[in-house]
User: Which sequence fits this backbone?
């Protein structure tokens, strides 16, 4: 029996999943995450029934590398396989640039092209590609597939991609790309299944997690999004600033004396919820805190999320639905309620009881805008892309 593995290697975590390939169909077998890489990594894996099948902690080895963690993960996967054979590994690659709008079999030329995009996604792309190289060393003959987070937004209109800079920069690739595309692709598909009429309408999908963005979708396709040239743009996030007056960057460099590298670290790793609260990047920790700075960080997150959502509506010409997804979007009824309350002028009203229990539909019956909670599953999207590529280029996987 054949199997597919998916990997989503980020700066501080590695998500993974194992799927059985039954003809053209996939069946989830096991998956999990290695979290807190760089501090005290911990691994948790669950089977299809949700039972924990593996727990491991590296409490005193915060310096362990992604590569060594992948070696351990690959060794565990081999014991989990039984008589199944891994035929391909699918990777989430955050940035595909202007040229890569569909999944690709990874070769030396593609790796070199993706290396060139590291400056556009410095928090994610290096770890994405390090995972590819680590698995090449572990299993050099195993096909690996790149699935791009920017691909869902690839067909945005010229106006939606252009930045107000001299045209030569746009021609060099300095433009808006959009991210979280694998998540939005999953949401668009699930919405078509659950509510085909609404899926064909005007919807804002809110991917709210440690990384956060929103996407305006019409007929299930991206027409605008809050992230732009990099995954630093748009919404305030766990440690990222989100949209910022560029004059602030100039001030930090010319008046405060910070180097470009120091500004990059500040905006990517020390800002957002963490920077404003001075406490944590985790919304759960902030909710539990009585510190006024924690409350202010939450208030600012809600304010900015509302502002960004409202800014997407002109691209849609109105609003029929909102979908919340990702860690905060799926699990935080307080944040959802506050955002929707700020958007009540659009006819957006929640059912408090449904919202409190994270129901699939959380809007009130009289709400003109239907509000849903749909769990994201980027791993499933990657796995299906791998299957499609196997069918299209079968000889490469034989």
Assistant:
């Amino acid at each position: 029996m054949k199997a597919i593995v998916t990997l989503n290697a980020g700066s501080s975590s590695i998500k993974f999943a194992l799927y059985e390939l039954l003809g053209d169909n996939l069946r989830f077998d096991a998956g999990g995450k290695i979290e807190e890489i760089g501090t005290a990594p911990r691994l948790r894996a669950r089977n299809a029934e949700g039972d924990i099948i593996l727990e491991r902690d590296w409490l005193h080895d915060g310096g362990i590398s992604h590569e060594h963690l992948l070696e351990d993960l690959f060794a565990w996967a081999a014991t989990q396989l039984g008589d199944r054979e891994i035929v391909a590994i699918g990777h989430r690659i955050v940035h595909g640039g202007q040229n890569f709008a569909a999944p690709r079999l990874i070769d030396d030329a593609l790796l070199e092209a993706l290396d060139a995009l590291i400056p556009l996604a410095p928090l994610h792309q290096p770890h994405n590609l390090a995972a590819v190289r680590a698995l090449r060393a572990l299993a050099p003959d195993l096909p690996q597939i790149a699935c791009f987070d920017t691909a869902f937004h690839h067909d945005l209109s010229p106006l939606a991609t252009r930045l107000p800079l001299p045209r030569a920069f746009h021609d060099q690739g300095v433009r808006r790309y959009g991210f979280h595309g694998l998540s939005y692709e999953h949401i668009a598909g699930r919405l078509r299944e659950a509510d085909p009429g609404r899926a064909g309408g005007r919807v804002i999908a809110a991917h709210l997690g440690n990384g956060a963005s929103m996407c305006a979708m019409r007929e299930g396709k991206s027409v605008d999004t809050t992230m732009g040239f990099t995954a630093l743009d748009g919404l305030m996030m766990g440690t990222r600033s989100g949209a910022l007056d560029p004059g602030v960057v100039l001030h930090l460099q010319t008046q405060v004396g910070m180097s470009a590298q120091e500004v990059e670290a500040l905006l990517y790793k020390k800002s957002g919820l963490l920077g404003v609260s001075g406490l944590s990047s985790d919304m759960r920790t902030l909710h539990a805190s009585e510190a006024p700075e924690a409350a202010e960080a939450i208030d600012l997150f809600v304010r900015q999320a509302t502002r960004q959502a409202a800014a997407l509506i002109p691209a849609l010409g109105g609003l029929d639905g909102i979908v919340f997804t990702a860690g905060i979007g799926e699990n935080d009824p307080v944040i959802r309620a506050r955002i929707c309350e700020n958007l009540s002028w659009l006819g957006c009203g929640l059912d408090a009881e449904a919202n409190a229990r994270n129901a699939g539909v959380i809007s009130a019956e009289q709400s003109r805008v239907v509000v849903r909670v749909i769990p994201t599953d980027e791993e499933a999207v990657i796995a299906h892309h791998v299957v499609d590529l196997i069918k299209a280029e079968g000889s490469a996987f034989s």
In short: The first strand starts at residue 2 and ends at 9. The two ends are 13 Å apart (CA to CA). Residues 292-316 form the longest helix (25 residues).
